[in-house]
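Below is a filled-in request sheet from our internal design queue. Each sheet records the structural input a requester submitted and the sequence that came back. We keep these sheets so that new team members can see what a complete request looks like end to end.

REQUESTER: design group, bay 2
PRIORITY: normal
MODE: inverse folding
CHAIN LENGTH: 117
BACKBONE (tokenized):
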């Protein structure tokens, strides 16, 4: 793991957090909150996926490893946005609004196979 891979995961997390916040309006933490939670989630999620799956662990920066780092950071950032939003709503005393449905909506596009032309 080098610093370039970590930076790619953090940027992917920030982008993923903001995308998740814009897609899931009821889960949004605001622009700054989405960015901060996305960066943290991107770093943590990228490291977990890299440890579990061994994705992008070769250390070189070929296109496959860069895409894997961006995807893992983005998914980690988006998932952390949903988790923080649910916890925030629970602490305020209101019930979370279909947290599992939101998570499925968030991960749905990532789980679809890309179409090759």
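RETURNED SEQUENCE:
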């Amino acid at each position: 793991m080098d610093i370039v891979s970590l930076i790619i995961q953090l940027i992917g997390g920030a982008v993923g957090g903001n995308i998740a916040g814009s897609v899931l309006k009821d889960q949004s933490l605001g622009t700054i909150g989405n960015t901060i939670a996305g960066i943290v989630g991107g770093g943590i999620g990228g490291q977990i996926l890299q440890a579990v799956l061994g994705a992008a662990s070769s250390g070189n920066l070929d296109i496959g490893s860069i895409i894997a780092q961006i995807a893992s950071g983005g998914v980690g950032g988006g998932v952390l946005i949903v988790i923080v939003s649910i916890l925030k709503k629970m602490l305020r005393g209101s019930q979370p609004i279909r947290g599992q449905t939101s998570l499925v909506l968030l991960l749905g596009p990532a789980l679809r196979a890309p179409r090759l032309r």
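SHEET NOTES:
- The mean pLDDT is 75.
- The two ends are 33 Å apart (CA to CA).
FILED BY: M.R.
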